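To illustrate the input format used throughout this study, we show a single complete record. The first block contains the structure-token representation of the backbone; no residue identities are included at this stage. The design step must infer an amino acid for every position from geometry alone.
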């Protein structure tokens, strides 16, 4: 059964400018170390950074909380399976929120171009 769906789209230039202006302070606020390393492994990290930003927003919408007191940026981590499929790792507040709402899985889909990054999240309950 589907409990929540979230979608987000972000302009890559918005994230690029935030990184240019705030540098590592911005990155460390919204991403976990493995996410930063993954994105920096590409010649142009900005589309990949924007996709993770969009993914976290989409997940927060699927949970119906937004990013805030119940669910923070660091509570969510986007990782990839060997074939490239993205998946979500929940930390601290994310695990607690999921458990308090009956568990389940959150499925992710990410897409990006040089201009936009988008993400969709579907939260299902077993």
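Output of the design step:
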């Amino acid at each position: 059964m589907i409990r929540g769906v979230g979608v987000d789209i972000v302009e890559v230039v918005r994230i690029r400018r935030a990184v240019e202006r705030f540098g590592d302070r911005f990155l460390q606020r919204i991403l976990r170390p493995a996410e930063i390393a993954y994105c920096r492994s590409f010649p142009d990290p900005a589309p990949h950074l924007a996709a993770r930003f969009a993914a976290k927003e989409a997940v927060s919408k699927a949970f119906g909380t937004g990013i805030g007191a119940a669910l923070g940026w660091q509570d969510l981590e986007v990782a990839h399976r060997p074939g490239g499929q993205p998946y979500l790792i929940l930390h601290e507040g994310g695990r607690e929120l999921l458990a308090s709402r009956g568990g389940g899985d959150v499925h992710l889909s990410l897409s990006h171009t040089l201009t936009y990054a988008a993400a969709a999240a579907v939260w299902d309950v077993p």
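Structural context for interpreting the output: Residues 9 and 118 are 4 Å apart (CA to CA). Residues 2-124 form a domain with the Ribosomal Protein L22; Chain A fold (CATH 3.90.470.20).
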